[in-house]
Amino acid sequence: MIRSKLYLILFAVLLLFSNLIFASESLIIQGSSTVLPIVQKAAEVYMEKNPDVNISVRGGGSGTGIAALLDNVIDIANSSRFIKDEEVQSALSKGIYPVPHRIAIDGIAVVIHPDNPVDDLSMEEIKKIYTGEITNWKEVGGPDRQIVVISRDSSSGTFEVFEEIVLEGEKVTAGALLQTSNGGVINVVTSTKGAIGYVGLGYLSPALKAVKVNGVSPSKETIISGQFPIARPLFIFTNGWPEGITADFINFILSAEGQKIAEEQGYVPLF
Known about the structure:
CATH superfamily of the largest domain: Periplasmic binding protein-like II
Radius of gyration: 23 Å
CATH architecture of the largest domain: 3-Layer(aba) Sandwich
Distance between the termini: 67 Å
Structural class: alpha/beta
Shape: globular
Strand content: 15-25%
Order of helices and strands: HEHEHEHEEHEHEHEEEHEHH
CATH class of the largest domain: Alpha Beta
Largest sheet: 9 strands, mixed
Helix content: 25-40%
């Protein structure tokens, strides 16, 4: 009789723990370091509202996030660019059906060291700097100092958009220092007086000097109006149309509260 009661108690405890385990839900999100601040903050607020949900958010770049989605090891891929045709073909061959969800709009700010007196660069000048045709700041009205070109690596969605809009498909100079994140670009630019880099709008701070591009400063207003020339939408991707907790979290990001979070992080909300 005692043994039977012990078995019943053990069974009840196991049942209780199993219910606790299955009651919790989780999301794994990975990708763009530009999208990261929005989704990370949204995840923090969402988990406060839903204590039974655990959301893990990692960076690594747009290409890394999309690759992880195609390998079916994450729930959501953050991307600061649209998915490529070859990625779609790879996804379909694996039975993955990537669905895009636009969550905000961003500008790519061209940044230099605060001590650099240059205030304005044309799109053509930026292109020539990044392709290695212009190598000294004195060629664009600055001091006699070598330009240190800082770029993102090939896994970056920001790099893809910058290459398309600014470089028009031409290659970045072989002498460029490649960084894996917006933070990496910031660290080099703030510590190197001759440096030039580019970051998402949400990463601007007094430690950086954002130059005007074609006479236009990067801001929420100039991006909405279409005046600032280097802008793009930000996406998250799911495998198929989202359901359950994935759909609920995306709906939160797209809600008025979620869009306010995007704006507070320095980005342009959808409405």
